[in-house]
Every structure is written in structure tokens, then in C-alpha cells.
Amino acid sequence: MSNQALLSNELNQFEEFLVGSLEKYASDSSTLLKAMRYSLSTGGKRFRPLLVIAAVKFGKGSLQQAFPIAAALEWIHTYSLIHDDLPAMDNDDFRRGNPTTHKKFSEAIAILAGDALLTSAFTMLLDQEDLSLSKRVQLAKGLSEAAGSNGMVAGQMEDIEGESQELTIEQLEYIHKRKTGALIEYAISAGCLLADIPVNASVALLKYAEHLGLAYQIHNDLKDVVFNSAQSGKESKRDEELGKNTYPSLLGVEPAMENLKQEIELATEQIELIKNSIDVSKVDIDTLGVFIQLLDYVKINVGA
Amino acid sequence: MSNQALLSNELNQFEEFLVGSLEKYASDSSTLLKAMRYSLSTGGKRFRPLLVIAAVKFGKGSLQQAFPIAAALEWIHTYSLIHDDLPAMDNDDFRRGNPTTHKKFSEAIAILAGDALLTSAFTMLLDQEDLSLSKRVQLAKGLSEAAGSNGMVAGQMEDIEGESQELTIEQLEYIHKRKTGALIEYAISAGCLLADIPVNASVALLKYAEHLGLAYQIHNDLKDVVFNSAQSGKESKRDEELGKNTYPSLLGVEPAMENLKQEIELATEQIELIKNSIDVSKVDIDTLGVFIQLLDYVKINVGA
Fold it and tell me: What residues in A contact B147, CB-CB < 8 Å?
């Protein structure tokens, strides 16, 4: 069984868990539950959960413990998309080919569904009684840091602030390190913590995540320019219309592609480092291939 | 020194803590910090923090431990006001006589400032290393439950859903139990947990909080009808214009006043119960007077 197939199995199991997870924590308002479920169910690559699951598998940890944490992370990622799509923010009518939450329901319902996913993600995470108190505190605190006012939301705000001006590439990295990087790095660090991965490998995986996060963002920026609406499922060249700073707009398409390649190489190096130094009795060494495949995925989708 | 003066001292100390608390957890985006500070600083009675502080004082607990928890709660209350005021929600231009956050800044900034206050409240709470891991988990989980998709947000959603129809008084109570009651009850339960208040007294205080919460909501509904714009600091009869179900609109003003009186009596009974049964060596019995004074406050403000 290839690593890809292995992760497909895990991801299918996770998908079932993810949709089921809502009922337990959101039953008191049927409209709210409906809007949360819609937002959570309309596709999504489950990229962040996949990182948690891959790290936990690598560290021979428990997937039953990983799923609720990966789900909480996906709830928070989903809330950020709902709020990001609002008319006052990016004003997107479609996401992954489906009407955005405020188009399907209403702006008020979208705001509240986002608030609910964000808040109750912490309930779900802290409710995992088979995790030690220490791990629950670290995981919840880490998640709030990654998503909060020195993390994702700060990145969002600086991104909006930057719309009216041309940024330097350093400023753009500052934004993306927070806006998308923080949750991606959290996914890996949560997996390492859950599976008690040895510190050296954890450090290398976290560096991998940093490069992966940047690669992911550059890839995302390029996708809007390179692909058309039908392929990306959202309106083409939207960022450009909004006057957003992107890697291709600041560097040009070719240098941005080059930059992406470099980040992928740097990420690959970290995985090689782990492969050459880890005590193989403590980890599932085959799962390292998943991290490499994840980089292929970013590459392939750029249309190489 | 009277209880009232005592609480004023504590609240002044708390106010200083509250404003200072932002810097540590929101420094990465100056606009975000500015909007969070503005929203947090424009008045507010600090009603929920006051409940935490009163409970902790009653249980002879540490105020240094109480302040961050009370602040996290106030951050979350403040986020709910910011989002509630948005054009897609209640569309309020003023709160407590000041421009609402989206009027002062922009809708996008208001959405993000709310998201940031909500998320980073959990960082602040979980960061309190002088609290045991068990208390941190209980406090954070309880806060997310009270504020989340089976708590405050569910109440908000049902409130919006109810706008187009006349509710029964039971449905209205269902809404308010979540929309405002949940955070008020959390304030008391957090205080009880922080100060290790004996279980009998905790149960009675929680019942007190339930009645106080309803009294607070009825009082709030009546305020909009009885007072004019200048006194309440927001536009008069706003709820009526929005077609909202309120206690006076469903019951009439006089019966709503009667209802308020009854809730205050039931709350008072719980405090009397504690007074007559508690081991006075374990608590600061004088602080019970604060809970009675809080009820007076609701009474006085109705204009009796």
C-alpha cells in the first residue's frame, strides 16, 4: 500500500469524524448547525488535518487522539474562510465552486457560524479526556496563539492594510507567516506533541512546516494567476482586482515559481535530515514519504 | 468601608489590568491592537468581571488569579458586542454614546477585532501558569461552552431567527438563557472554581446567577422602552423597530416589571440560603452583601 493510499484511508475516516463532530457541540440552534455543517462540508482539501495525521502516524501516535485536534483546527480554518469571504472583507460569492456561507444563508448567519466554529473548536479540543491536562492546555493555547491576535488575525489585518500600498517581499512574508503559516505550523507541532516525537525530529518537522507554509502561499497566489475560474473554483485574478499584494504581483510569475521551487527544496532538506538521523525504532519511517508527497502535491498543482 | 466602595477599588484595579492585558497578547498588528483597545475601553459596566471578582472575594481567593479570567471573559463579551453591532446584525451606530467599532474603523476591522478578542481570550486564560492545569482546562472549556454554539452564539442565532415571528415567553427565555445568561453564569462558576468555594454555596450562587441573568435581561429590555436615547446611550426603542421579541413586547411593561421583581426575589433567596448555612470561617461573609447590591443596581436602573 502506497503512502498516498494510506493517507486516503485516514482522510476518509477523518472526514466521517469531522462531519459527525458537529452534532455533539452544536445542537442548540438548528440554523446555526446547518450553516456550520454547510461551511464545513463543502469540499476543502483538509490540508491542515492531513499534516496533523501525518505527524501523528510518523510518531506512532494514536489517530483517535489526533482526529479531534485535527477537526478543531479545521473548524478554525473554516471559520476564517467564512469571515474572509464576507462582503466587508474579500466579498467572494463562491468558494470551491459553491456559494459562500453568506450567499447560501445570510451575512448575519455567516458571521455567527464563523464565531461558533471558532469558539466551539476549543470546547471540542479541551473535551478530550484521554489526553493529559498538560497536552490539552498546550494544544488549546497553541491553537489560540496561531489563530489569534498575534497569529492568523494579525496576518489578515496586515493583509487588508497592505491592499492600498505596494509591500516589500519581507512585508508580504510577515503577513503570510501569520495568515496561513501559523495554522500550518500549528498542525505539525500539534502532531509532534500528540505523538511525543523526539525533539530533533520535531524541530526539523517544524522547519519543514515553515517552508511548506510559504510554498503553499506562493502556490496559492500563482494558482489565481495561472489557472482560470473553472479550475480553481473561484473567480479568476480576484486578488489582482482587489489590488492585493501577491508573490507574482511583487516578483513576477517566473521568479515566484522559482521561489516556490526553492521553498520546496528547503522543506525537502529537513525531511532528508530526519531520515538520516532518526532512531527508526521510535517512528514509522515510511510516513516520511507522505511529507515529500505533500510537496509534490503543491508542485503538481502549480501545473509543472 | 462599604461593600460598594470595596468593589470600586477592585474594579479600578481590574480596569487597569484589563487595558494593560491587551499589549501582551496583541502586538503584531498596530491597527488590530488599536481597534481591540478602542472596543474594550469605551466604557462598559464590567458587570461580568464584577461577578467573578465578587465570587472570588467571597471565597477568599486570589484576585491576582481572578483578574486574567475576568479579563478573558470581558474580551469575549466585548467581541460579542462588536459583532452584534455590525450592519448585517443589529446595525447600531452607537454604543454607550460612542461610535461602534465598525463606525469608528471599518466593518472589516470590526470583524477582525472581534475575532481577535474572542480567540486571544483563550491564550490569556491558558497562559496563567499559577493556576493548576485542571483549573485552566475547566475554565477555558467552560468559557468556550458558555460563548459557543450551544451557548451565546446559539442564543444570538435564535434571537435573529425569532425576529420575524412572535415568540412564546418560554422561547424568549430559551434565547436569553444562552444569549446573556450563559456568560453571567460562567462568571459566577469561574469565581467559585478559582476560590474553591464549598459545593453547597457554589450551587446556590449559580442559581442566584440564573435569576440575576434573567433579571438583567428583563431590565435591559425595559430600559429600551422606559428610558430615552440620552439616558441609555443608544437609540431608543431600537428593539421595537427591529421587530425583536422582548419581555415588555410579549408581556406588557407592567407584567415585565413584575417579572423582574420576582427574579430579583428568587436571586435574593439564594443569597439568604448561603448566609444561613455557610461555615463562616471558610468565606468572607461580608461579600455576600455585594451580591445583594448587584440586585439593587438592576432595580435602581429600571427607575423604581
Answer: 119
